[in-house]
Design goal:
The structure holds two protein chains of two kinds. Helices cover 84% and strands 0% of the residues of chain A. Chain A is an all-alpha fold. Chain A has one domain. The termini of chain A are far apart. Chain B is mainly α. Chain B has three domains: 85 residues; 30 residues; 182 residues, no CATH class. Helices cover 72% and strands 2% of the residues of chain B. Chain B contains eleven helices and two strands, in the order αααααααβααααβ. The chains are: A mainly alpha, B mainly alpha. Chains A and B meet through helix 3 of A and helix 8 of B.
């Protein structure tokens, strides 16, 4: 017996997995550091967002759900900042090859 | 389904371990090691060892990885020379044989373990309530096996003394590590302003939750030390001088308090590190609170390395 919420979770998490896959394909296929960073940070953050949204209805309480959202926000903050730092260091070394 | 996931993780772990060993470039080997640590913590989660998983992710992957990265940075200049002198085939074969022998011996030891494995867990569970803490890991670490934890804390302090003693004479007592320069309006400075307040709350939460849930001083101290390192690396604050009295007091306060509690146990409960009836919880809390600054300072200062700058010279 699958409820509407479960269906929603499955759809959102499957969508998240698709974006993770797309990000990984981009990481492997794109030609230089900047485009690879672009693929990783954009696609993976969207993937994580979808996975978190999909998991929210499955959490046992409001506090657990809030922790999940906090994890997502922290990953968002750190991956955005680290992508900037890696890109800057790639530019300093020249070309991002 | 879960068996498939488990098998995939194990295969990935073995492949990653092999890759880390054969990687020619030291930086790549460290990168492989960090990923290996994160994957290993996933294995611990699957084995329901959340405490171990947290420690593995924080110390095994995070802190050890960062320390190794620092070592790679220092070895950069000599790496090409080291790679050029390849040992002879005989020596390499001998090393491979030794490594395989150790692996085989470990595998045999694991396979010949009695089933069920010898365990003291059934003894711990009924006696846990006498310690006043709900998390069995914390109970074991700070009541039943407190001596191990005490020695661990002392070993960490001795490790830091070892690192500091590598300082050149003229830098002794100076500030450890580099003075980091970063763009004050850059993204690193921004991160170092936004993240630490959140990180400090999460670190203290893990510390407090350790009494009844997975967590504890080690995981908490790693996060707090990381926040401190972030602030340093963004150039927002400098490392304190290594001859500062406050710094040294903070480093030794944990082991000192631990030993004091242990000695207090001799007249009060009849043995070193024994807790008198009803006093277990407050004494454990006292030890944990005293150990926290020690761990934060030692972990962060290990990252900084030996004192290298005197005075305020940059």
């Amino acid at each position: 017996m699958i409820s509407v919420l479960d269906l929603f979770s499955i759809a959102a998490i499957a969508g998240g997995c698709f974006f993770y896959l797309a990000g990984t394909v981009g990481l492997l296929r794109f030609p230089d550091a900047y485009t690879r960073l672009h693929a990783l940070t954009k696609a993976d953050n969207l993937g994580l967002a979808l996975v978190v949204i999909g998991l929210l209805p499955q959490m046992s309480g409001l506090l657990a759900a809030a922790k999940l959202v906090l994890v997502w926000l922290l990953v968002l903050l750190s991956s955005a900042a680290v992508a900037q730092l890696i890109a800057r260091s790639a530019r300093r070394q020249g070309g991002g090859q | 389904m879960t068996t498939v996931v488990g098998a995939v993780i194990v295969a990935l772990l073995l492949w990653l371990a092999l890759w880390t060993v054969v990687a020619r470039d030291a930086f790549l080997a460290v990168a492989g090691f960090v990923v290996y640590g994160l994957l290993l913590s996933l294995v611990w989660v699957r084995l329901a060892g959340i405490d171990v998983a947290l420690t593995e992710a924080a110390i095994g992957g995070g802190l050890t990885g960062a320390l190794l990265l620092g070592a790679v940075g220092r070895l950069r200049g000599t790496e090409a020379a080291t790679a050029a002198e390849r040992p002879g085939p005989g020596l390499r074969a001998l090393a491979a044989l030794l490594a395989l022998a150790v692996t085989a011996a470990l595998m045999l030891a694991v396979l010949s373990l009695p089933d069920p494995a010898p365990t003291l867990a059934p003894l711990v569970v009924p006696n846990l309530q006498s310690t006043g803490v709900g998390n069995p890991i914390t109970g074991v670490l700070l009541a039943f096996r407190a001596l191990d934890t005490l020695l661990e804390a002392i070993v960490l302090v001795i490790g830091l003394i070892g690192v500091w003693s590598l300082a050149p004479d003229h830098a002794w007592g100076g500030r450890p590590g580099l003075r980091y320069q970063a763009d004050p309006d850059g993204i690193l400075a921004y991160l170092a302003r936004v993240l630490p307040p959140i990180g400090i709350v999460i670190g203290l939460y893990l510390f407090w939750a350790g009494a009844d849930h997975p967590g504890g001083k080690f995981q908490s101290a790693t996060i707090l030390a990381a926040m401190w390192m972030l602030v340093q690396m963004a150039g927002l604050s400098d490392t304190p001088r290594s001859d500062s009295g406050w710094l040294r007091l903070g480093i030794v306060v944990g082991p000192l308090a631990f030993v004091a509690v242990g000695v207090f146990g001799i007249p009060a409960a009849g043995a070193f590190l024994a807790y008198p009836e009803g006093w277990a919880k407050p004494l454990i809390l006292l030890i944990e609170v005293a150990l926290l600054p020690t761990l934060v300072l030692v972990l962060a200062l290990l990252m900084n390395g030996p004192p290298s700058r005197h005075g305020d010279a940059r």
